[in-house]
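Appendix B: complex inputs.
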Amino acid sequence: MPAPGKTLEIRTSPHILSGYSVDSIMFNVVLALLPVTAFAIFAFGLAGLLTLSMALVSCVLTEHLICRATGKPTTIGDWSVTITGLLYGLTLPPSLPLWMVAVGGVICVAMGKALFGGLGYNTFNPALVGRAVLQAAFPVAMTTWIAGFTAGRFTSLPSSTLTLPFTEPTVDAVTSATPLALWKFSRETTAVADLATGFTSGSAGETSSILIILGGLYLIARNMMNWRIPVSIIAAVFVLSGALHLVDPTRYASPVFMIFSGGLMLGAMFMASDMVGSPMTSIGCYLYGALIGVVTVVIRTWGGLPEGVMYAILLGNAVTPHLDRWFRPRVYGTATKEAAS
Amino acid sequence: MRLLGMKTFRHGVHPPESKDETSGLPIRQFPFAPLLIIPLVQHMGAPSIPVVEEGQEVWRGQRIARPDGFMSVSMHASASGIVRKIALAPSISGRMVPAVYLEPFPGSTQEVEDGTPCPLDTSTPDEIIAAIQEAGVVGLGGAAFPTHVKLKVPEGKFVDTLIINGAECEPFLTTDHRVMLEQSDDIFVGIRYLLKVSGAEKVIIAVEANKADAAEHLRATFPGDLNGSVELLRVKYPQGAEKMLFAALLGREVPSGGLPLDIHALCCNVATTAEIGRLLPLGRGIQERVITVTGPAVKRKGNYRIPIGTPLRFLLEHVGVEEDVNRVFLGGPMMGGAASSLDISITKGTSGVTAFTDSAAERTHSPVYPCIRCGYCVDACPIFLDPSLLGRLAANQEFSVMAERHNLMDCFECGSCSFVCPSHIPLVQQFRAAKAAVRKAAAGKTGAT
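Resulting structure:
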């Protein structure tokens, strides 16, 4: 028997928990992002390392300081801001001036997350909010890409990286168009093998589809990601772009090219599937994914920009609350669905 | 719904089963405590009215309380002894309830006194219903709903299928498992009584696949003249909730706010069935029940036949608990209530006693995060509520919105949502409070008019 004076604890059931916790889910997402992060640094050398580091540091520091300023315990321990920082860094062109990276990082967390109420309330994916602001503010810098795998990438930096704030960045490194831009503006295709392995130009983490898929599979296997979302996005892109390609292969890119190029894989696996901004029901997830896929193809094909994944996901985030409301499952024992409130 | 050859329902969770340590242990008789405290409210409904006086000597099995109306049952002495007093005693909820304090005679052989038998062949359904009430039978699965009440099929309704619930989906508990292995004859006699009362054409005994040996045994001993079958169900919580059994086995749903009778089905726990089959032919009443005593803090785990009214303290002293015991609850970890005191006693609704050590309990001391809308709870809820949304409404105390627009009152508090929540939000705990508030508001309204 227990020692005299020992008090028993009284709680209501359940008395056991599944073992999942927010911080462990978020930490596993970070783990799943590590391979593609490592590849980004390998591909773009010092520029990639500095871009990613600055993105991460600015996001984490912003969250920490906002918590301090509002008198709350810091929330950087739940790892969610680490994901934001990494994803944000991975969506940036590696030659982006570091001061712009820092500005965007602050916007990611302050505007995309804290302003909405912090973790769980951020309607839009914070990393994409930051990136969208940068895209609007610095359109040239955000679409200037350097070639990866250059010989001196670990010893020298593109001069644009260290540009002083509010001065015009000068690009001395070898610039290189992304596969999507090549297609859009000069109808050149890139070999699928290069797209899948990542030996192309692009944002820091958008290049290697295989590593992104590996990370996604890890999360799906651990039941930490809703597989329906990436699957339906990719399926929607494949079907729509495939249909267009059949109509006119010279005007419309092949579906395989569409899937493996640009930010689609990273967006589908890691950003659209962010739990906070995606629907909770299965039907909702399929529709959400399909919407993102369709909007991506529409922007890529007929829009002014070569890439549309970012706006497609932000639009999907905006629709999510409605999807959750419209597709609430029928409650056991009720004849028809309750009218949406 | 059938999945991989076994029937089941949609959604639900998979808590660790934790049954291996006791599932192989035969049922053993538990000794008598020096003082038994038999509460007069062990069931849902009106408290029973004592028919013995302080100082009176009673036989084991003698009726000591009579039902107060139809929604009430008789009580029987758990031992031959002397009624020391009839006074208030603590109950699991913390409320004081009237109870009979019975001091067993130390030297008694504790023979059970038989009453008037209720023979299966010659009794009418109404006589059987009266006998079940007289035997003090309530749902032994944990709800303690008076069994005879739900067996009374009103005029104009009918039952076509009787389901015997041997799912025992609650982790740790193995009483139904042992009863199925050791008391199959009683179960089949009980089924015959239930079929006769309800008018059902067939019976389905539902067993979760982790008790395949019990299902095999029941199949092997299934009487040839009985119309029915033994169905193996997938192991999933809360498979043993009757609403889930109807969905899995019959593809029918109890209407919201309705009764199983509305879908022509009746569900009875397997241990309750066995007690009916054991007691009615002898005219006896329930004065003991099988419970599993288990959990990391229990030294001599097992399945015991325990006299009703055995104080929890005596039980724990007898089986031995570890120094670092932290939490004791009646029932299993998913739905069992934590004991508010060690002076409460084992009642008819107690299916198990589980004790956790500090380290086992510590796992539930997790920090609460905001809801991250992961949807785990939505995928877990067996009746397709949106616990995430309900949780947000509960935090704002919008109880009437929860009840009127989001089916709060359909929640049967299985706890699957709280179990899976990675943010450790006390979802079902809030829903319990919300349901109580809604009921109180409704009672206040009708009282005012």
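Chain A touches chain B through 47 residues (CB under 8 Å).
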